[in-house]
Amino acid sequence: MKTIINTSLITGNNPATMRIEKNEYTPATQIESEHAYAMPVIHIDYRGRILYANRASFQLLGEWNCIANEYLPEKLVMQYPGLLNLDADFQLTILVKSFQFHLDAIGFKESGYIGLYGFRTETNNEIHDPVASYEVFGEGE
After folding, report:
1. Contact indicator for 123, 101 with CB cutoff of 8 Å
2. Which helix H or strand E contains 59, and what residues bound it?
């Protein structure tokens, strides 16, 4: 559902030549809510503990059976040890059910965490095996 708000803007200084312009716009809060599930952000420490996860990352965390303040799954860490590197700077793609999560892993040494930032896209490949429910592809570590 798209909300459109009408606003009026009065232009001009002279009352005889003033005109009212109508503008339509979509509020930023609505735009943010439409994209809230598409832009995951996860912060992890060098031991793999999840320090922060936004709403868009809940699908990933649910698939991994973990929540904020818990640790990344061992399988993921073994496949991608660079996720625990405070100097991380690489990209990876994680498949979960019918979605692909394209993430940038960026280390923030001075702050003591690794940030995972990205976006979600849909795929036609439904993954049904709950044990091997994700695959990781990427460059560098």
Report:
1. no
2. helix 58-64
Q: Sign of torsion, CA 83 89 90 92?
A: positive
- What span, in angstroms and rounded, lies between the C-alpha atoms of 82 and 86? 8
**How far from the centroid of its chain's Cα atoms is residue 68's Cα?**
15
**pTM score, two decimals?**
0.64
Outline where DSSP puts E strands in the chain: 5-11, 19-25, 41-44, 50-53, 89-96, 99-108, 113-122, 136-139
At 126 the pLDDT is 53
Residue 57 has pLDDT above 80, yes or no: yes
Q: Mean pLDDT across the stretch 118-131?
A: 65
